[in-house]
Amino acid sequence: MGIGDMVNKAKDKAMNMSDEDIDKAADTAKDKSPDKFDDKIDSAADWAKDNNNQQ
């Protein structure tokens, strides 16, 4: 499985998550990654919430 496949799989899962679940996932990602990525993780979470269930 390549990186593109993993990204698409994550997008599919994110589209069916509640905003609360997306926030929990973002918090977990921020806990596990260096602080310099927090802004990117927050941006990705905001995008997922804005586009949730709009496949």
Write the H/E string, N to C: HHH
Question: What would you call the shape?
Answer: globular
List the total number of helices: 3
User: Compute the gyration radius: what is it?
Assistant: 11 Å
Task: Sketch the major β-sheet.
Answer: none
Q: Assign the structural class, choosing from mainly alpha, mainly beta, alpha/beta, alpha+beta, or little secondary structure.
A: mainly alpha
In total, how many beta strands? 0
Helix content: over 70%
Number of domains: 1
Tell me the span between the first and last alpha carbons.
Answer: 23 Å
Proportion of strand residues:
under 5%
List unreliable stretches of 5+ residues: none
How confident overall, as mean pLDDT?
Answer: 85
What does this structure look like?
The protein has 55 residues and is mainly α. The chain has one domain. The chain is 71% helix and 0% strand. The chain has helices at 3-14, 19-32, 38-50. Helix 2 (19-32) packs antiparallel against helix 3.
